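Reviewer 2 asked us to include a model.

Predict the structure of this chain.
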Amino acid sequence: MIYKILLTVWMAIIIVAAFLYAEAATGFPGETSRILFFHVPQAWVATLSFLISMIASAVYLAKRRVKADYLAQSAAELGFLFCILATITGSIFAKTTWGAFWNWDPRQTSIVILLMIYGAYFAVRSAVNDPDRRRVFAGVYSILAFVTVPFLVFVVPRITTSLHPENTMNPAHPGMDPKTLKVFLGSLFAYTGLFVWMLRLKIRVLTIEGLREPKFMSRKPDNE
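Predicted model (structure tokens):
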């Protein structure tokens, strides 16, 4: 309870500070630069989630611990959610800055590919009835899927021409002013805290569902 109260207060402070404390960066239309306080932390949480899902999947494959699979599934679902949020906030920034919600910029394209890759992860999980086989297949896929994350998130946008500015906040004077940096780091911590709370909650839900899940009984051959 205390954790939720502190997290709620911290998130509220960050939202207020993002609009009333930090100053808008020069070189961008109106107040559009303030979206950094939400877009980048969302992308950060998405990447962190996929990393945790990969590690948890490896643990499950090595030790067959069901809790590790719960962690892998929960992290993947939250990563997918925050990836969608990052896409939406990025599209809003694109509309106000470049004139269209979608420009097929390398960063925009790579995040859509990432969404498709992890969308297939959930398809894999839903396609197998046997819980044990489902966890194995999903674990293997999660590891293979994460191999693409560093390439799509960090490599592709930097080896191709992109509309996305390298220094989002102030291209004229690289770096963040003290106020902006405080709010930005505070937002990273806030979103990370939100992710941890949501992850724990999701794992609890999966644990309860797992206790209610009927045991899969394989069908014996007719000749037996």
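The CA atoms of residues 64 and 91 lie 40 Å apart. Residues 178-212 form the longest helix (35 residues). We have added this to the supplementary material.
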